[in-house]
Every structure is written in C-alpha cells, then in structure tokens.
Specification:
little secondary structure, two-stranded antiparallel sheet, 1 helix, elongated, BspA family leucine-rich repeat surface protein, DUF285, LRR_dom_sf
Length: about 450
Amino acid sequence: MFFRKIMKQNMTQEPIVYQTGTYVKLINKAEYCKSIIADGKELIVTGNESGELIVPELKDPKVYITFKEGITNFSDVFFGCTKLTSVPANLFANHPNATSFSGAFFCCTSLKSIPAGLFANNRKVTDFFSTFFGCTSLAAIPENLFAKCSEVTTFSTTFHGCEALTSIPEKLFANCPEVTDFDDTFSSCRTLTSIPEKLFANNPEVISFNATFVICSTLESIPEKLFANNPKVTDFESTFRFTALTSIPENLFANCPAVTNFGGTFSKCKALIAVPKGLFVHNPKVTDFEQTFEGCSALTAIPEKLFANNPEVTKFSLTFHGCSALTTIPENLFANNSAVTTFSETFYGCKALIAIPENLFANNPKATAFNFTFVGCTSLTSIPTALFDNNRKVTDFAYTFASCKALTGESPYTMIDGQKVHLYERKNYPEQFTAPTGFQDCFYDSNKLTDYAQIPTDWL
C-alpha cells in the first residue's frame, strides 16, 4: 500500500529524462532519495541506500525521483549521470532550505537544457560550485536561472567545459549581489563568442575573476565596461588566457583599483596585435605581472608607459615570453617599477627583438633574478654594456642570453674605479655587487662576443 502511494505521488510529478540503454546511472547520491521509480519499479527499498545507483538496463526514458524532506545539501547529486538529458523545473521546489548545489550536474554530458525555474524556490543557496561543470551538450542558459538566489557567494567553475554554449544572458547574475568569486565560471566554453557588457554589473562584492574565461577559444572581444561595477577585485589571473582576442579596451580595468594580480591575464592570446597604453593606469596596487602577455605572438609593440602607474610590482616573470613578433622594447617600460625583484624569462623567445635599450633596467635596483630573460632572442645583435649597472643585487644570471646566436660586441660590464667589471667578474667585487650564484649557460651559443674567450666556461 505504501509503495503504491509513493508511486502514485511520483507519477504525478514531471519526470527526469535519461537516454535508454544499458548500465544507466540514475543518481550519484541515493542517500538523498525517498523514492526512485524506473521502468515501473521502486528502487529505494530500505531507505538506507547510498552512493550511485545504476540500472543494468533502462527501457523507459522517464524516471521519477523524490528527494527526502529536509535536504539542504544537493552536492554531487547527479554527478557523472552521463545519460541524463533533461530535468523538470520543480525538481528542487520542495527544498527551500537548500544551500549547496556544488557539482549537482557535474559531467552530465547529455544534459541539453536547464529549465528557467530550476532554482526558483531555493533562496538560501550560497554555493553553485561546479554545478554544470562539463555539461558539454548544454547550448543555452536561462536568463532567470539564478533570479531568486540572492545569497550566492560563489559561481566557481559553474559552467566550466560547457563546450556547446555560444552566449551568456546579460542578467544571469543580476540578482546575486553577494558573489565574491567567478573563478573559472566559463572556462573552456570553447564556442562562446561574446560576453554581455552588464554581465557582472550587479556583483559589487567580487574579489576574483581568476580564469573566468580561460580557453574560451573563439572569444574575440571584451566589452569595455565589463568590470565597471567590480571595485573590490584583486585577482585577474588568467582571466582571458587562450582566447581569440584581437584587442583590449583601454578602460577595461579602470574601476578596479584594488587589483594585485594580472598574472597570465592575456596569456596565449595569439591574435592580440596591440595593448592600449592606459590599460593598467588605474591599478596602482598590482604586484604581479607574471605571464600577462606570454605567448601573444602577434604583438609587435609595447606602450612605453604601460606600467607607469604600477609602483608596487615585484614580478615581471615571463611577461612577454614568446612574443615572437615584438621588435623593440621602450626604454622607460620599467622606469616606475622600483620594487621589482624578478625579470625571469621576461622576453624569452622574442625572436624578432633587434635591440635592448641601455636604461631598460636602470630603475630596478632590487632585482635579483634575470635568469632566462632573453633566451632565444635570435635577432638580437648586441647588448648595451651598461644594461645592468644599477642592478647590483642580482644573484641569478642563468641562461640570460642563451641561444642569442647573433650577439656581437662585448658582454655587459660596469665601470668600477676605471675598470671594466663584467657579470662574470662581479664575485671579485663584494663591496660593489652581490656575487651571482646562478650563472649556468648565461652566454650559451653566443660565441661572437668579443670577450667570449675570457668568459668562464661555467657561464657558457
């Protein structure tokens, strides 16, 4: 009698639809379920079932699931249910106290659509971490999907890997004012072609956009006011890495004065041809520009004052690594960055670079690392002899000019009491320089230098 009552109750509800076939996973968390009816059979027998529930064969695509009363955590509920194709709008309607849908539909690769009212009665939700992660068949998102979820704090990796998604509704997050991070939210959405300008307009508490659109490989442009209402952001690491951007709006970060990290923000944007001179002018607290433009192989020039308003930067590691079309470097590029400690791999692989300005590092007295800085700059024909005059604390010159085969002239030196002190001689002047401890292959394959014969072999 009890079973018939439950079955009748469930059959009046909208079904969850699966692809039929063998070994169909219906649920990943059976412990959340009061009833599961598939092919006319009740699969919750004892009420103590837990973990995944797989049927050897599913003939009827319609499955009826009722959750236990009082469930507040729906984490991983349909995790890995690869045959699930659709869910009803009222699936979670009887659970108003639910706070988490973390991983709820993780890798439901056959899920093609989401009903607009799926979370309409879940007003206490704070966590949508990885909710639709890897839903590769999902082609669209309802604009009001999160309209009633005003307490959400994280949308981290929510739509990661939704490869069929081509657009995002502008008001998707409009009623979610408490969100603090959008880390990886749309990462690997490879067919996403545009971003609405007001997507984050009502999210003033956000502090991180780490990798939000990384590997959105068909994304060609960014709205200039995308982050206009996000003044608390500190992290833009890898935000647009591996995208098809051809340009960057100059005022993209104009209202983000708290940013400290631009590491890898535009890394591997191979179609990017220019960087606006005022891009970072309103970001005085930045400390990290590591890999920011790494692999931007179409970039031919750098604005001289690009980093002029970033006095707290400590890292320029790999910043222009692999910018193979870059021909020149402005002399005052780092003039206002006196706190920098590392220039590791900064211009590594800039094959078209023909010259280095003499005063490039003149205002960076705290720099300790120049390892791999100009490796593979094969068009470089000379090094200014006074290039490192003001960099007397350097401990690492390993591979600095390795494979710069066209170099001629004398290697860098500093005049001390009328004597030339080359990099490899600094250890003999402890009162003037910190002795380098890393120097392996500093001038590897640069055998046209006039002082090549006197350079110690461990520097070669």
